[in-house]
Specification:
The structure holds 3 protein chains of 3 kinds.
Chain A: H1 2-20, H2 26-33, H3 39-48, H4 51-57, E1 65-73, H5 88-97, E2 99-108, H6 110-122, E3 129-133, H7 134-142, H8 150-156, H9 159-166, H10 171-175, E4 177-178, E5 181-182, E6 185-186, E7 197-201, H11 202-207, H12 216-228, H13 260-265, E8 273-275, E9 281-283, H14 288-302, H15 318-321, E10 327-330, H16 335-345, E11 351-354, E12 364-367, E13 374-378, H17 385-399, H18 406-419, H19 438-450, H20 461-475, H21 481-499, E14 502-505, H22 514-536, H23 543-569
Parallel strand pairs in A: 1-2, 12-14
Antiparallel strand pairs in A: 3-13, 4-5, 6-13, 7-10, 7-11, 8-9
Chain B: H1 2-31, E1 37-38, H2 44-47, E2 49-50, H3 54-61, H4 63-95, H5 100-111, H6 118-128, H7 134-141, H8 156-181, H9 185-193, H10 198-221, H11 230-236, H12 242-245, H13 248-257, H14 262-290
Antiparallel strand pairs in B: 1-2
Helix pairs in contact in B: 3-14, 4-8, 4-10, 5-8, 6-11, 8-10, 10-14, 13-14
Chain C: H1 2-38, H2 42-46, H3 60-66, H4 69-100, H5 110-122, H6 127-136, H7 143-147, H8 154-166, H9 169-177, H10 182-193, H11 195-211, H12 214-219, H13 228-244, H14 249-257, H15 260-278, H16 283-294
Classes of the chains: A mainly alpha, B mainly alpha, C mainly alpha.
Chain lengths: 570, 296, 297
Amino acid sequence: MKAKLLLTALTLSVALTACGDNGGNGNQSSDSNAGTSNEQTSGGNASGNTKSGDDLAYEKTAEPVTLSIGFKIPDDKLKSGDTNENNIASRYFEGLTNIKVVHSWEAKGDDAFKQKVNLAIASNDLPDAMVVDRNQLRKLIDNDMIEDLSDSYEKYGSKLIKDIYDTTDGMALADATSDGKLYGLPNVGIEADAPSLLWIRQDWLDKLKLPAPKTMDDLEKIAKAFVEQDPDGNGKADTVGLEGDKAVVYGQKPNPNGFDAIFGAFHAFPKNWIKDASGNIVYGSTTPENKEALAKLAEWYKNGLIDKQFALYKETQEPIVANKTGLFFGPWWMPYFPLADSVTNDTKADWKAYAAPLDADGKFVTHMAPVTDRYIVVRKGYDHPEAAVKMLNVFTRYERRQDPNTEEVKKLDDYAAETGVHIRNFYPFDLLLDYSDAVVKRYNDVQKAIKGEIDPATFDPDTKQVYDFTLAEKENPKKNMDAWKPAKAYEVGGAILANQPMEKVYSVFYGMTRTMETKWATLEKLEIETFLKIIVGDLPVSAFDDFVAQWKKLGGDQITKEVTEAVNGK
Amino acid sequence: MRRKKNDLHYNVMVLPGIAFLALFSIVPMFYAIMAFQNFKPGRGISGSEWIGLENFTYLFQLPDSRQIFFNTIFLAVLKIIANLIVPLLFALLLNEVRVRFLRKWIQTIVYLPHFLSWVLLATIFFDVFSLDGIVNKLFGVFGIDPVLFYASNKWFPAIIVGTDVWKEFGFNAIVYLAALTGINPVLYEAADIDGASRFRQLWHVTLPGVRTTVVLLGTLALGNVMNANFDQIFNMYNPLVYQSADIIDTYVYRVGLNDLQYSLATAVGLFKSVISFILVVVSYVLASRFANYRIF
Amino acid sequence: MVGRANLSNRVLDTTILIALIVFSLACLVPILHTVAVSFSDKAAADAGRVLLTPINATTASYTKVLDDSQFFHAFYISIKRVVLGGLLNFVLTVMMAYALSKDSKQFGMRNVYMWFLVFTMLFSGGIVPWFMTIKSYGLLDSMWALVLPHAVQVFNVILLMNFFRNLPKELSEAAEIDGAGPWYIMARLFVPLSLPAIATVTLFSIVFHWNSFFDGLILMNTQDHYPLQTYIQTLVAQLSAQAMTGMSPDQLAEAMAVSNRTFNAAKIIISMIPILLIYPFIQRFFVHGITLGSVKE
C-alpha cells in the first residue's frame, strides 16, 4: 500500500517533470488552440480584460505576508546552507511577492504527506494553505474549513493561469467548485497521460523474429516467447513475460504496469463511471466486460505469461529497471522513468511503444483521466487568501518559462544545472498547470521542424529543448541520457498519441458523493482484492459475480444512484 | 498516625506517574467519544452530531470486520500457543546442559532477536523470504519449488507467527529456566537412586515442576488475545495478504489515517479495548483463583 | 551396565547440544546474512547470491552511510530520546513501583491506582484521538512528544513492584522502627537491593525508546526530528525509486554502484550496534530481574 502510494507520487512527479521540462509557451499554445475548439472564446475574453489584472496578479504585497504551508520534501540535495524552507527558489519567490512561506510541517513521500494532511484535517489545525486531493477537498468543503477563493482568484489570478484553466473548458475550476464557490485552485494535467501503451523491448522482439503486436493473441505469443526463449540470451531462464502491478489497473492516470489497456480492449473501464448500452450510469469495475478481461489475465498468470512476482515488488518498476521483463504497459513518458534506468543498466535495450492490444473491431480503446486531481486550498479565516493565488501566479509563470526577470531566472537555471536540483520541487505547492494538449502539439512541431517545414527558431524554449535533444540523440544515440529521455518519450510515446486513432472513453463523474465518503474505501478495497485474487488464482473467475453482488449491497447501489443524480443534475 | 503519614508519601510517589497516565491515556478517551458521533473536524467533538452506536453497527456489517477480528484472534492465539511451547522446549533442552559457559553463550545468542525492532527485522525478513532469499535457496536444495511467501495467504500467517516466535522464544524461556532451577534437586537424586532414565525424570520430575508456570503464563497471555502485534504486521504486510494478516490495529490505522473515516476507526479501536479489558479481568480472576497468583 | 548408561547419556547429550546449536543458528542466520549483504558488492547482493559470507567484500556501503548526515542526525535524536525517556522512566517507575508494592492496608488507595494502571494499559482511543491529545498540548514536532506520553511504562512498574514485594518485609519494618521514612527506605534500602530488577526495567525502557518508530512518523513535522527507526522505516520504502528519479547519469551510476540492498543492510547493522553493546552485559541482571519480578515462589 505504502509502496504503491509512494510510487504514484513519484511517477506523478516524474510525469510532471516530463511535461514541465518541455512546458509550452503559453501564448503560442493558446494561439494554436484557436479555431480548434470553441474554448478559445472564453480564453479570448479572459485575455481581453486582464491587463490591469496582471498588474495586480504580480504586484508585491504592500506589507510582508506570512503564508504557512504543508510541504512535500523532495529528494534533491540542496547546496549546503540552503534548507527546504529557505533556499534559492523560496527566496526568489519571496522577493517577487513579499510573501514569506513557512512550513507548518514537512513530509517525505506521498503517503506520509497524505497522512499529515489527514491528521491536520482531523485536528482542525490547517496550515494557511496546502495541496489536497479530491477526497480531502470534499471533506474540507463539507466541514466548512476552507476559504471561498472565488473573489481572490477573479481579482488576483494571472492571465496565464486563467488561460490555462480556460483550455479545460471550465472543467478544472468546476471540479473545485461547490455551490458556485471556488474552494481550490486545481492543477491541470495533460490529456496524454491517460492512455496506457504497450512498451516492448524491440531488440528482443527482433531477435526472436516476432511481428509487432496488434491483437490479444499477438501479445500472448510475445509474452510466451519472452518467458521461454531466453530473449536476453544469457542462457538462463530469468526473464518474465508481461509485467503487472498490485493495483491491477490505475483507472485514471496510469503508472507503469497497469493492465488498463487489456481491460480497455474488452471495453471494460474499471474505476471509471461510464454509461452502459442503455444509457444508465454504471461503475466501470462492475460491468460484465471486466470478467472477460480478468479471465484472460488469470489464464495468462496461470500459464506463467505474467510475472509471478508482479504483486510483490516494493517498487513496481524493479523488474523493468533490472531488465527482467521486456513487456509492460505504461503511459507515454516511460522513457523518463523507468526506461532510462533500464537502458543505463543495459545499453542494448531498445524500447518501443505500441497502441495494443486492439479490441475485436481493431480499435485501440482507452479510458481518459480527469483534468485535475489536486487543489490548493486556503484555511478558513486566513487573512490573505490572495497570497496563495499570487504564489501560484509567480511559480506558474516561472514554470511556463514566461518569467520576464531574465537575470534571476538565469541564476535559477544555472543553479539547477550545477546541482541537479529541480527548482519545481521547491515551489511552495506541488501543483503544476499545463496545457492539456501539450505533448501531441510539441511532438508534431518537432517532427515538422526536422522535416524542415517549420523553423525551430520560432519554438518556445521547451519545444526547442525537445528539438535539440532529439537531434543530439540522433547524432549520438544513448550517449547522453538527459537527451535520450525527452527524445524517446516524444519520438516513441508522443508519436503514438499523435498518430494512432484511439477511442477515448471519459468518465462521467470524478467526485465523491455522500455515501462514498463513508463506504467508498471499503468498496475499493473489496474491488482491488477481488481483482488481484482472481488474477493470481486465489479466487475463481466466477468470484467476480459475487463481488458485483456484494459491491451493490454494501452501498454500491446507493452510490450509483447518487452519482446518477449528480451527473444528471448538472 | 504513622500509617497515615506514610499513606501521604505513597500518594506523592504515585501521583506524578498517575498524572502522566491521565494526560496521555485518559484524556484521549474524551476525544474517543467521537466513536459515537459523525465527527466533523471543523466542528470538533462538541459540535459534531451524535449518532449513538451507528458506527458500531456499521462495523459489524462490513465484510472486512469479520475477517479482521478473525485474523487478529487467530494470529494472536497461534502466537500465544507457540510462544508457550517453543520456549519450554528450548528451556528443557538448555536445562540439560551442564557446561556453564556454553549455557551462557547460547542464552546470549537467543536473547538477541528480542531486542531488535520490527522495522529492522521486517527488512531483514523480506530479504530472507524473497524469491531468491535464503529460505527459497534452502527449499531448492531439497528440490522444492520456490514459494512467494509474502504473497501467499497460506504461508504468510505462518511467517507472522514463525518470526514472532523466532524473536521471542529465547527471551520467553527465561521464566521457564527459572522455574526449572527452582525444582528441588532432591527429587532428581531420588529418581536417580530409583534408576529412572532421563526421559522418565523429565516426565515425572521436570514437567510437573514447570506445570504451574505454563498454566500461569497461559492464563496471563489471555489478555493478549486481541493483540496480534501492530509493529510487526504494519512493517511486514502488503495488500496481497490483507485477507490473512490485516488485524484490528492495522485496519484502524488505514481507515483512520488514509481514508479519513475518523469515527469508524475510533469505534473499532474502542471495541477492541473493551474486549481486551474484559479478557484481562478474566485472566486476573483465573490466575488468582487457580494458581493463587496475583498479577498486581 | 554403568558403561551403557553413560554411552546413551552421551548420545543424548550430543543430540541435545545439536538441537541447541540449531536454535542458536536460527537466531543468528538472518542477522549474519544481513551483515554479509552489507559487506557485499551491489551486483552480487541484487542477484541474491549472498548467503552468509560477503561476496567481493567491500565497505562501500558503510562509507556511504558515513556520508549520510541525515542518518547520523536521526541516530543522535534516538540517543537523546533514549537518555531523556530512560531517565524519566527510571524515576517514575521506581517511585510508583515502591508505593504500589505496599498492600492496601499500608497504602489505602493502592488498589484503585492499580486498576487505573491496568485500565490505561489496555484502553486506547486509537490513533486519531491520541494525535489530537498530543497536539492539544502543543507537543507536536518536539522531543517531548516522544518522551512524555511514555513516561510511565505500566508493564515495567508491575515488574519492579513484584520484585519489591518479594524482598523480605522485615527489612522495611526494621528500618521503620529505626525511624526511617518511606523515601529513605526506598532510595537507600530497596533500590540498592533491587539492582537486577532496576537494570532490567531500564533495559526494557531503553529498548522501547530505541525501537519505537510509529510515534516519530505521526508526531514529527519535519524529517530533521525523526528518530532513527522512523528514518529507516521511511527509507526502506522510498529509497530505491526516489533516488533514481531526477538524477544525472553520473549520479545514477554512482548510486547504482552501491545498491540499496547493501546500503540498507549497512544502516540496519549500524542501528543494531547500541543494542548489541548493551544487552549482553546486563544479561545476568535481566535474567535475574525477570525471574523474580514475574514468578513468585
